[in-house]
Design a protein that fits this description.
10 strands; alpha/beta; two-stranded antiparallel sheet; about 15% strand; about 40% helix; TIM Barrel; six-stranded parallel beta sheet
Length: about 240
Amino acid sequence: MKIYFWSYRQLILMGVMVLVLFGAGVVTRDWLRPEAEVTGEQVVAQPIYQGNKEEQKMALTVNVDWGEEYIPGMLNALDAYEAKATFFITGRWAKKYPELTKEIATRGHEIGNHGYSHPHPDQISVEKNQQEILATEKEIEQSTKMKTTLFAPPYGEHGANVLKAADSLGYKVILWTVDTVDWDQSRSAEMIYGKVVEKAENGAIVLMHPTDRTLKALPSILQELKKKGYHLVTVSEVLR
């Protein structure tokens, strides 16, 4: 086996070559993005389903386009167990409930982007997806003075148009590890609790919605996950 030793001068020359190739477009910033995938014309970042598996942390997410009557109770439950969550809010909801949007942020939770009008993003163009994201970003920023950087596409749709739109605006596309399917009225609080607790693992991202059954299950979920040693954090933190 041969062992090669590089001189300081050689290392400098290699660095210069990389910079030259970068400037020529041969090497791009996407070359350093392992989560990116080449899709014909360009490199596009892929959806994120799970966070850091090395730490005992989980992220609860709440997709919000309705159910505002359950948000205060969910915030109280999270506070009671010193847990944080990420609320993915639609622009039309943020516009209708600016004070509640502000309260979510004020109480230390993260707010993400869920599009403006909750369309099927796979059925609209890149440009329309960009408009949905930007319009929501504007509404949330007006209420919270914070810019969103995470995008949870409605219905979990993540086709090429969705990924290109989000990537072009600097957003990470967030999906989930565990889906409670709590929007389904046949799902009881016990079923929601069981799904989360049974599927709990390091770095898990849990998808929820503001429903009466979710609100009923939430305290027990938080209590059990805490007992198991999990720290309930925002999506941004679980990705670190």
